[in-house]
Amino acid sequence: AVSRDEEHVEATVVHDAGSIALPPRSYHYLLLTLARAWLEDAATAGEDRGWVDREELCKMLGVDSLKLNVDVCRIRKQLGEAGVLGAAGIIGRRATTGQLRLGVRKVEVATLGGAS
Q1: CA 16, CA 80: separation in Å to the nearest integer?
Q2: Which of 9, 18, 83, 111 has the fewest Cβ atoms nearer than 10 Å?
Q3: Interatomic CA distance for residues 98 and 53, integer angstroms
Q4: Distance CA 79, CA 33 (A)
Q5: Distance between CA atoms of 102 and 57, rounded to whole angstroms?
């Protein structure tokens, strides 16, 4: 979920046994960006859906590739520490193209309530 001004992002992992609200971190904006790309690319077939070029993603986030890689590692670590199985796959990479995409197939982006 994201605030109207996009300053705050809250990530929640939903699974069969319930849900886990992750402590807010700045790198959750990367998850939001990849989730939006996945949702916007709904007309594309499964294996080709949601991929974003690394350079384009860096521009969208206002970061360099080193910061992007650090954020990917931090997301994976946070999910792993929260007990999420398969946390390493939360962000997929195409080694040959440098593209990234969200590694889950069920995703929802909501707007946080309250003032923006």
Answers
A1: 17
A2: 18
A3: 6
A4: 17
A5: 12
**pLDDT band (50, 70, 90) for residue 105:** confident
CA atoms within 13 A on the CB side of 58: 13
Tens-digit pLDDT profile for residues 19-69: 999 999 999 999 999 999 999 999 998 889 999 999 999 999 999 999 999
**How far, in Å, are 26, 34, 89 from residue 20 at the CA level?**
18, 20, 17
Whose CA is closest to 1, among 11, 19, 14, 39?
Answer: 11
Place of tokens 């992007």: 68
Residue 30 CB neighbour total at 10 angstroms = 24
